[in-house]
Design brief:
With 50 residues, this protein is mostly helical. It is 18% helix and 0% strand.
Length: 50
């Protein structure tokens, strides 16, 4: 994850966890990586404390 994105989320009170290896989203076919730069960020916001 982009360090600045992580820091901004944490500064706003979010707990940030690294994903499991199989969900890293590094493939070029991942929807988040199809933009002009070929890389993106995907995140999930959960409302439960688990």
């Amino acid at each position: 994850m982009c360090p600045l994105f992580r820091i901004e989320l944490q500064n706003r009170g979010f707990t940030v966890k690294d994903c499991e290896e199989k969900y890293r989203g590094e493939r070029a076919t991942n929807i988040c990586n199809r933009g002009r730069t070929g890389k993106g960020v995907q995140y999930h916001l959960m409302t439960s404390p688990w």
